[in-house]
Fold each of these.
Amino acid sequence: MNAPRRFRQGASAARAGVGLLLGVSLAVLAGCAQPNLAEVREFVETTKRTTPVRRPEPPPEILPYTPFSYTAQGLKDPFVVAAFAQEEELLGGLLVGIPTASDAEYTGPRPDPNRVREELEKYSLGSLKMMGTFRMGDGVDLWALILAPDGVVHRVQKNNYLGINHGRIAGITEQRVDVQEIVPDGPGRWQERDAFLSLTQ
C-alpha cells in the first residue's frame, strides 16, 4: 500500500514542478509584453524638443510652354554646294562634273562655265520666295516676282537663272515658276533636275 502512495506523491511533486515552471515562463512573457516604456517616452519627448522643424521645400515653378518658331527658311541649304565653292572649282578647272579635255567623250548636260552669273544665283532655291506675277508691254510674256533673303524683290522671266544649281527658268504660270537645274552626278558627269517655286510656299 505504501508504493502507490509514494507514486501519488511523486506525481503531485511533478505536477507542482511543471506548474512552477509554467508560472515563471508566464511571468517572463508578461514582462516582455509590457516593458517599462518610460525611457522610450522620455527619448521621444527629448527628440521632439531638440529636433528643429523643417518645412518641405516648395515645388519647382512650372514655366508656361513657349512654342518654338522655326526661322531658318532663308538660310543656305546645308546639302547643296555653295556657289563660291563652285566658282573656285571653275577657276581651277576642277569643277566636279564638268568634262575636261580628258573627258571629251561625255555628251550629257553640263553647266556653261563661261556664262555670266545672275543676281539670284547667289541664293539657294529654297531661300527664294515667289511673291506674284505680272505682264509687261504687250502682255504676252509673264514675269514673276521673286523675294531674295536680303529683302529685295527681283523680277524674272523665262530663261533667267536662279538658285546655286545653274537653275534656268523653264516656264512661269500665275501659281509657280518651273526651274530646270543641273546638278553633279558623279565625277565628270551632270544630270538635269526639275524644281519649282510655288506662290503658296
Note: The longest helix spans residues 2-33.
Amino acid sequence: MKKKYIVLFSLFIVPLLFYIFLSMGINNFAKLPVLTEGVTDVSFLNNKYTFKKRISVVAFLGNKPDEIKGELFNLNQKIYKPFYDFKDFQMVVIAPKRAQEEVQKIEKEIGTYTNMVKWKFVFEEEEVIQAFYESFKTNISLDDNLHISRAFVIDKEVNLRGRDNDKDAKEGKLFGYNMKSVGELNDKMKDDVKVVLAEYRLALKKNNADREI
C-alpha cells in the first residue's frame, strides 16, 4: 500500500510541484527596478518622437559633443548594435540646438559603419533640456554644458529603469550607465536591457496564452 502511494506521488504530485515551481519562476522573473515613475516623454522636446510603447536608451550630449563623442561610439558598439533589430528599441540622443551641426557630423561618422535606423536626434533650447532631464529625478546633475556621461533606460510605460542594489553606485541606485566605461556598458547595461526586453516578451507570451484559454 505504501509503495502505491509513493508511485502516485511520483506520477502526479512531483510534476505538479515542478509546474508550480516553473510558474513561480516566470511570475518572479528578475525584473529591472523602476527608479523613477513617469518621466517626461521626449515628445515634450519634439512631437515627432515618443518614449511610449518603446524601449529607449537616452543620452545627453551637451554643447561640446565633439569632446565626448567617444562615449557615443562606445554606446553604439556595446548597446545599439546588439539590440537595434528589436522592433520597439530606439536610441534617443538629446543636445542643445547650438550643437546641432557638431552632432550631425558625429551622426555621419557613426553612420559609416552602423545602420542608423533606430537613432533619434533631438535638439532643443538649453533650459527646456534641463527641465526635461529633471523629470528623471536622478542623483546626478547635467554639467554646465548640459552633458552627462550616463545613458538611461526608459521603458514602454515611460519609467526610468536601473539598479537599486548596485554595489558601485551611491546608495545602491544606478540610474544611468557610464558611457566612458566599456566594461560597465558590457557587463551591466547590456544585461539590464536584455532583462527589460525579456520582461516584455514574457508579458506578450502570457497575453497570447490568456487569449487562447
Note: The first strand starts at residue 34 and ends at 36.
